[in-house]
Please model this.
Amino acid sequence: MTDNAEKKDGKKVGALHSELRIDLHTFYAISTWEGRERGTRKDTIIGMPRFFRLVSSINRDSLADNPYADAVMYQLEKLIDEAHKNVQRLLDEANDLIAELPSGISLSNVVSKSPLNIGVHSHTPLGYRCVYLLVGFDQLALKLFQAHHYGFISRQHRDDRLYQGGYQIRKIFSAAQHYRSFPITRRDIVLATETIPPAQRYFGEVDREVLLGRKRSRFSPRVNAESLRLLHERLRHTSRDHKAEESIDKQGDKDERQG
Model:
């Protein structure tokens, strides 16, 4: 975490700095962090470092007033929020099963003797939020293996929940991978420049709520004020033109009936 030096009482304040490190205890979480290279019978699965680079690129486009990037940032945020809830639900379920342990028996928390300690460096808040999700998945995997080892759940139950937990992260990675960068701003949409058709063919039409900044990631910057002014002005003109066309059509229908 860094910030520009500030002046206070004539003195310079140094740049802010902080470091985040995580411990991963299970193969499932570690393999999700690292990803998988393409093999003979297996496709490539990106890992967390690659996701950081992808979401950083999307964020840069969002900073440049690209509404398609804004839409994907919003999508990623919603996917991460939903995934946090789903992983927590699975973890609560596993904890409830272990809580049925008969009285007189104590069970310690399960951890790896040698967890993988990783320094985390993301340029976006969404990157860090995805890391927190991965740590939650790691805790879920630990609890599931413990529950299976002590006979609370079957192997099939364990593997099914592990798949569900991992899928929560993989679908976020997939959404980031699907993004393509097009040099577009809201101003281009207002002016209907030649840069629009390729993006529309790939993404489709931009959600009006995203375009107007009403549906937006809470970690994205504010929409460019000048772009919003141009958009609202265009929408007003479009609305007036549409009403004028309706009036002409109605008058035409009336004339035909009278004729």
Confidence is low (pLDDT under 50) at residues 241-252. The CA atoms of residues 240 and 246 lie 10 Å apart. Strands lie at 6-8, 11-13, 20-24, 116-120. The first strand starts at residue 6 and ends at 8.
